[in-house]
Design a protein that fits this description.
single chain; Beta-Lactamase; five-stranded antiparallel beta sheet
């Protein structure tokens, strides 16, 4: 094709506002028309460039698919490129494009010029997707309601059935061609004449009709149905078709009297109850004394998803009955007590649901109030402990100044300051562990993994003289429980164990272990070597405000809250006064789902750090902390770069250094830890991330990286980075 022909083609296509491209395969250059550049979100101006521009707008899989089509065409396997692809244009809008291309010129037998057009088919594609969704929704609605639709075209006298109508008639979609006579012949003999009359009136007098009858399937089985019909008219009021719905009401009719009796029981329960069969048909529901016409449907009353609904059905069918207390499906805007019972003989699920939102909020507020009250009672002791810590630290620092000015050895006073800070940290850890607001969202998680993920927190809370061990056999199971509350319960038991050990002496041992029972139950054991619990006190320890500890060491709130939380979430807590380690032995029991694969968390890595020639980026707005971390890591052979704010962070990651590890504070004045990690991982997607913070909400599972709580010393930093 000559250059004059090319120019003429360009003019014609530009004149009809066609988006096109022309690829010079010899010189590897592509001509993009102004219309095509506009679709891609750029200036409405033609451009000559390369194929690289498409890498900005196509994902990897789509790009590979396009390259494959091009290669197939160049090899002669297909006569042209014809493909519909998703893109993201320059403005970030998602579009669908239909591209057609073909080689139009060869030089010495080799393809030299390719030409193609592009059309924006986003609107058409979205319409197809929406129509498919609507059709899927209609089919799902018919299946759930056990009903199907039909349409009789008056002019052609043809009848069409949906798949569900075929099923109600006991037929497959391809077994017969439905006709009016065949539809009538299977009805009860006494109702056929009535059906024909109603149908005649619908066509000639445009009267809708309703009929309750029965039909006989080819197998001889009788199915009770209700038929509802309306007349479809044109703009002039002329009848075009009769449109109707078939609904299988066999089960609801057979069980109607029985359900009346069950409904009478419900009037004594005074909560909504719903009867739904195996096929998700609502058999009977208008039986609640609180029925208001709006909440009479289960999905209107309790706003869970289809997936959650099906999971409850599955569990109820397996277990006969399930009960869930304080369950929510909208982030605890509403809270329910829920019971689902499966009556196998009748194939009926009985759903009893009670909205307990107000009661739940009152209980949660009471928990918070109890903790605040306890803080008020113990604030004097806490203030005394903190003042002691500050007094020791201040006195030691002043002695450091004096000794340093005299040129004397100051190592003993440095140790005093460090020990004072460690004691102060222990006080704040106890306060944080106690005052955290309880997590209420029930999630499914692996408790063994959760314990190992938080083992560093357990070690931080305990005195250095108390040893804690984690003893688990290979296992992998899931429990449904508030994840943050699970760890809070264990922290409570561990801190109680520490107090019991201190009642006996300075040092001791705490062990956390687990085992699976045959009936899908998981046991978590917390044992200690403390003073134990006398037999006469075992029945009292879960009572509110009862405490067997020494004065000023407890007020009986902790174990009462543990017992209440376990009970509300279908768990169990047991206690032995004297166990294998000599002290108390607490056992937490959970329902669990055992998974096939075995899991055993790895022991922490060696504390010896080997970071020689490793590039590490440290971000913290506290200059002294950042410098301390950097100095420590540099002493281990690492190359460390420090940033104290967002601007410095951006400068560091845009430098020529390729970083291997990123250590960041979680809360900074000008950006969050998550924002910092996102910035760094854009440049270094495989970088290892660690975090440090003075604020930790252990129930926040959205943070995917290990966290070290401030303040910390070099030994704790080494152990943390070796995990």
């Amino acid at each position: 094709m000559s250059s004059q022909s090319h120019e003429l083609t360009h003019k014609v296509l530009t004149g009809i506002d066609e988006a096109y491209w022309q690829w010079d395969l010899v010189n590897e250059s592509i001509f993009y028309s102004a219309q095509l550049m506009k679709i891609l979100g750029y200036e409405n101006k033609e451009k000559i460039g390369t194929s690289v521009i498409w890498e900005k707008h196509l994902d990897r899989n789509t790009l590979e698919d396009v390259h494959s089509k091009i290669q197939q065409h160049l090899k002669g396997e297909i006569d042209r490129i014809d493909i519909t692809i998703p893109i993201v244009n320059h403005q970030g809008h998602k579009l669908w494009l239909h591209a057609v291309g073909k080689v139009v010129e060869h030089i010495d037998g080799r393809a030299s010029l390719m030409f193609g057009t592009v059309k924006d088919v986003t609107e058409t594609k979205n319409m197809i997707v929406q129509l498919k969704k609507q059709n899927d929704w209609l089919m799902l609605a018919e299946r759930i309601s056990n009903s199907g639709h039909w349409r009789f075209d008056i002019q052609s006298a043809t009848l069409d059935w949906s798949a569900e109508v075929f099923r109600i008639h006991g037929l497959t979609n391809k077994s017969i061609v439905p006709t009016f006579d065949k539809a009538v012949d299977v009805l009860l003999a006494k109702d056929r004449a009535k059906f024909r009359t109603s149908f005649h009136n619908a066509i000639h007098q445009q009267q809708p009709f309703y009929l309750k009858t029965a039909l006989t399937q080819p197998s001889g089985k009788k199915i009770k149905v209700e038929v509802i019909a309306e007349v479809e008219r044109d703009s002039n009021g002329v009848a075009l078709a009769v449109f109707g719905v078939y609904k299988d009401i066999t089960r609801s009719e057979d069980l109607f009297e029985k359900l009346k009796l069950l409904a009478m029981v419900n009037f004594t329960i005074k909560v909504p109850i719903f009867f739904i069969d195996d096929n998700d048909n609502v058999v009977y529901q208008d039986i609640s004394p609180h029925h208001d016409g709006i909440s009479g449907v289960l999905f209107n009353y309790i706003n869970f998803s289809i997936t959650e609904y099906m999971e409850f059905k599955k569990l109820a069918k397996e277990q006969g009955q399930i009960k869930e207390n304080n369950v929510s499906f909208d982030k605890y805007t509403t809270v329910f007590d829920l019971s689902v019972t499966y009556e196998a003989d009748e194939g009926i699920y009985i759903w009893i649901v009670e909205n307990v939102t107000d009661k739940f909020r009152t209980e949660q507020q009471q928990v918070i109030s109890n903790r605040l009250a306890l803080l008020g009672n113990t604030f004097g002791n806490v203030s005394h402990d903190i003042n002691n810590v500050l007094g020791v630290a201040l006195g030691a620092i002043e002695m450091l100044e004096i000794k340093f000015s005299r040129g004397e050895d100051i190592s003993d006073y440095i140790d005093r300051v460090k020990n004072a800070i460690d004691k102060g940290k222990d006080v704040t850890e106890r306060l944080l562990a106690f005052t955290r607001r309880p997590t209420v969202k029930v999630v499914s998680f692996d408790p063994i993994q959760d314990i190992f993920d938080n083992q560093y927190l357990f070690k931080q809370l305990l005195l250095s003289t108390i040893k804690i061990t984690f003893n688990f056999k290979p296992m992998h199971c899931l429990i449904n429980f508030p994840q943050g509350e699970f760890i809070n319960i264990l922290l409570n038991l561990v801190l109680n164990a520490q107090d019991a050990i201190q009642e006996k002496g300075l040092s001791g041992h705490i062990e956390i272990s687990a085992n699976l029972l045959d009936n899908n139950r998981l046991e978590i054991h917390v044992k200690d070597s403390g003073i134990g619990i006398e037999k006469e006190n075992l029945t009292k320890i879960f009572d509110p405000f009862y405490s067997s500890k020494s004065v000023n060491k407890g007020n009986g709130i902790g174990l009462a809250n543990v017992y209440s939380t376990m009970y509300k979430h279908n768990g169990l807590i047991q206690v032995e006064g004297y166990g294998a380690l000599g002290g108390a032995h607490f056992t937490l029991v959970f329902k669990c789902k055992v998974l096939i694969e075995k899991f055993l968390a790895k022991e922490p890595k060696s504390n010896s750090l080997r970071y020689k020639n490793t590039n590490i980026l440290v971000l913290d707005d506290e200059v002294s902390i950042a410098e301390f971390v950097a100095l420590f890591l540099e002493s281990k052979g690492a190359n460390v770069v420090v940033a104290n704010n967002k601007k410095e962070l951006i400068d560091r990651i845009n430098s020529d250094i390729g970083f291997d590890i990123f250590i960041t504070d979680m809360i900074l004045p000008d950006l969050s830890g998550k924002e910092a990690v996102n910035l760094v991982m854009e440049k270094f997607p495989d970088i290892n991330v660690f975090s440090i913070s003075g604020y930790i909400a252990i129930e926040d599972r959205s943070w995917d990286y290990p966290v070290l709580r401030k303040p910390f010393n070099s030994k704790e930093l080494a152990e943390f980075l070796a995990m």
